[in-house]
Amino acid sequence: MVMSEHIVTSYEDELKLIVRRISEMGGMAERMVEQSVAALMRSDWGLAQSVVADDVLLDEAQRTLDERAILTIAKRQPMSVDLREIVGAIRISNDLERIGDLAKNIAKRVIAVHDHAQPVQLVRGIEHMSELALEQLKEVLDAYGERDSERALAVRDNDEQIDAMYTSIFRELLTYMMEDPRNITSCTHLLFSAKNIERIGDHATNIAETIYYIETGQQIADERPKGDKTATMTQPVLNAQDREV
């Protein structure tokens, strides 16, 4: 009986450790996103370099968690909710690692943007968009900590706001580039930064769907709400540009 209780306690400790590591990775990913955008807004190369360095740590944290999770599955052969918990942690760690990559990509554009004049309105728009993405990320990590599937679904539904803002910024950036070719370089870097932020929102949505799966054992069947309309507006804008040339 003592041996059985020891095994159960040890197994629970392993599950708790996996959950704790996800929380640590989430905090690191949040910080990287916040600092990368701050570096972009302030042209702070030192802060940008710090984000790039942190990405190595986040990558290592993901590898360590995945190895531990796979080892736990092999040793314990979990069933039902325990198995979903571990598989969900692997999925979430992958999304958090990708969020770190996207933050690093933003940080790496700091020098390129610093060398060119930036439209103030667009920079502020990107900053506001990043605030929305960060709010989504914090909310979904809280939902994971509380195992709150309804809160996670609310995050999924709100992703449309980030998509819509990205569409607006995309449109404005193309307009600036068409009006003056000297804006092309800086606007291109800002466009990629905005896309990275939009993708961060997508990964927060992925995490929300994983939380729902952990708690219910079901995948969300209906299609995600999407507010990104850039695919439908790209061709008309390019045609207009061709006519001017």
Structure description:
This protein has 245 residues and is mostly helical. It has a single domain (2-244), classed as Methane Monooxygenase Hydroxylase, Chain G, domain 1 (Up-down Bundle). 87% of the residues lie in helices and 0% in strands. It contains eight helices and no strands. Helix 1 packs antiparallel against helix 5 and helix 3 (80-107) runs antiparallel to helix 7 (184-216). It starts with a helix and ends with a helix. Residues 1-6 and 235-245 have low confidence and may be disordered.
User: Tell me about the biggest sheet?
Assistant: none
Q: Span between N and C termini?
A: 82 Å
| Pattern of helices and strands | HHHHHHHH
The total of helices stands at: 8
CATH architecture: Up-down Bundle
Number of strands: 0
The CATH top-level class label:
Mainly Alpha
Computed Rg? 21 Å
Classification by helices and strands: mainly alpha
CATH fourth-tier homologous superfamily: Phosphate transport system protein phou homolog 2, domain 2
Poorly predicted ranges: 1-6, 235-245
Bulk shape: elongated
Strand content: under 5%
- In total, the number of domains comes to 1
The helix content, as a percent range, equals over 70%
* Average residue-wise pLDDT: 87
Q: At the third CATH level, what is the topology name? A: Methane Monooxygenase Hydroxylase, Chain G, domain 1
Summarize the topology.
Elements: H1 2-42, H2 45-76, H3 80-107, H4 110-114, H5 120-146, H6 149-179, H7 184-216, H8 230-244
Helix pairs in contact: 1-2, 1-3, 1-5, 2-3, 3-7, 5-6, 5-7, 6-7, 6-8
